[in-house]
Amino acid sequence: MVLAYLVAAGMSRIGRREETSRELVVEAFKEVLDAVDPSSIEAIYVGVQSEVYEHQIMYGALVAEALGLLPKEAYRVEACAAAGALALHNAVMAVRSGLVDVALAVGVEKMTAKSTEEVTDALMAASDIVDQLSGVTIPAHYALIARRYMRQYGATEEDLCAVAVKNHRHALENPKAHFRKAITVEDCLNSKPVATPLKLYDSAPISDGAAVAVVASERAARRLTDTPVKILASAVATDTLSASQRDDMTWPAAVWEAAQRAYRQAGVGPGDVQVAEVHDAFTINEILMYEALGFAERGKGYLLIREGQTYIGGKIPVNPDGGLKARGHPIGATGLAQIYELYLQLTGRAGKRSTNAELGIAVNEGGVNSTAVVHILAV
Amino acid sequence: MVLAYLVAAGMSRIGRREETSRELVVEAFKEVLDAVDPSSIEAIYVGVQSEVYEHQIMYGALVAEALGLLPKEAYRVEACAAAGALALHNAVMAVRSGLVDVALAVGVEKMTAKSTEEVTDALMAASDIVDQLSGVTIPAHYALIARRYMRQYGATEEDLCAVAVKNHRHALENPKAHFRKAITVEDCLNSKPVATPLKLYDSAPISDGAAVAVVASERAARRLTDTPVKILASAVATDTLSASQRDDMTWPAAVWEAAQRAYRQAGVGPGDVQVAEVHDAFTINEILMYEALGFAERGKGYLLIREGQTYIGGKIPVNPDGGLKARGHPIGATGLAQIYELYLQLTGRAGKRSTNAELGIAVNEGGVNSTAVVHILAV
């Protein structure tokens, strides 16, 4: 089997930034320059959610120019918040196709120059227009899921908040995180409502940021680095956009499907995973991810966080960088921010938040789990 | 070398349509159902320009659902008007990577529900925001190129109009074209100004439509069809978005670069091409494409149309379906509309507009030639 390798990764500081999207990409890219001679990059795939934030499309050529990489192949991939991991998936396909030897995956979003209302409207485009006409925003869709999950399985608002508490705790050791502030379950329960039962501290913030990953063929990887990370699996699956069309709204079918494909590609199972980066756009979704990745049985994911098993040092550490909740959630960048964290974890660069893991998984999704992207990496 | 094969193609009627984008995709997809069992499709790549037209992103999952193909891999690719050909390029990479056996490329755009002002604004996002702030619209950028080209090489407004006359003539035999009406050079010269020297009849229309292409590995292609078309080359290159940053605005450097790569991949040269589909968003651009594809020397492309050499029956027939100008230009669909035409031409399905070609080339571009995609197909 022709494998692809992750040979370097970079990330900007995440948060409320003054820089434009292209400047954030340049910041993230600088971090890979020790490992990679830019001239070796043959193709660039850029994950961006929305043209609205900067009134800009064509991010492929834009990024190629900003990085001094014209006239290389470059274009954009998109499935809302899954765009970042899709950029990596595209880079993996490009390398495995033999058409390019070294590819750059880029994820970026510049959101904070827009109002919360404008961002909510731009994100709402990730719902089927049919649902949009019914007035279901993205937070409302997650709120429906949370309510239904709690009723069906007995989870509580405290369990949801426990996810936020963990991710804020983890982010204390992440110098690039949007938030580095410990919170308590009470802080979360008392925070203002966003879409009841979800509160402000159940919700990932609106952030600016960029992340990049360099993917290479085996031959090129050997030339470029002594610490290549194997990309054992890269899988994508889809589900209906509309909340009303799913058999069970608490079950992220596309994530399950992508994870099953990824486990088959990699020849491993949930028990082999030592660290996970999952898509906690809202706290409820981290719990759903525990189940869809096979870390817990269906309907029992909330027990994992209740027992503290997903902290660093627990049975299966999840989001050691703080996740979307505390690291931040610049939409198009998020999937590659997850990969950046796995890269640090697997190559012994994670410092005080190290999990000592040698095999990790990342799940990035868009459109409330309607497009799921799962990667499995190992050293 | 692992080749990918085009095994089927479909296209909706192009024009001012009442249907939504997903309905247009279903219409185009019906045309491939004779050749392809939908269950054999493993991945879908969708080219769409803008989220503004239907307040919708996530076209991957949306299209997968509309075609009954959930939970297959599906996502969007974008580089403005090059999105359609990029969907094909992605499908080629997917098949060549060995990760999928059969992939579906989809291009679609639903534009006419918006006003001309809204469409112009959405397209302007394909310029670097720096140029947008200067007020340079996409038609204005092409107008600058036309003026400069005429001054530099001696072409006339009549030469530009001759491209429109040819493409309207060709579309008379295309039942799916947006316009089936012959025009004269005088009609064109007297049409109302869009961005002087470009007039209405120098300009591709705002259209709705969809096109699809099915790409398969050699093994799958043999199973699916007796008339597979070889995808000899699929190449992408980029140039600066900003008009002010190009050395010579009359030279489409990314198109030249993509064409050079494609000719190398295919092991052929311009003299081997028997039919071409080129990106005549404005008439001037068809002339630039003659030069960038190597059909004419730099600065001499206009002589080809002046001499009538790009008509069906001429030395090198260009846009036998009517091109963007007369077939129509639903932005994200255009690149695959070109591939649809090559498929018909190379498999003896082009009826009265047949060129009897066995090798053809297509060039699709976005952002005024800042992202170029070139495919070479042969039987």
Automatic annotation (TrEMBL), chains A, B:
Q: Which residues form the Thiolase C-terminal domain?
A: 236-378
Q: Its GO biological process terms?
A: isoprenoid biosynthetic process
InterPro entries, per database record: Thiolase (IPR002155), Thiolase-like (IPR016039), Thiolase_C_2 (IPR055140), Thiolase_N (IPR020616)
A Pfam match is: Thiolase_N
GO MF terms listed in the record are: acyltransferase activity, transferring groups other than amino-acyl groups
Keyword list (alphabetical) reads: Isoprene biosynthesis
Which NCBIfam families would you find in this protein's record?
A: PRK06064.1
Entries under PANTHER family matching the protein? ACETYL-COA C-ACETYLTRANSFERASE (PTHR42870), ACETYL-COA C-ACYLTRANSFERASE (PTHR42870:SF6)
Indicate what this protein is called per its UniProt record: Acetyl-CoA C-acyltransferase
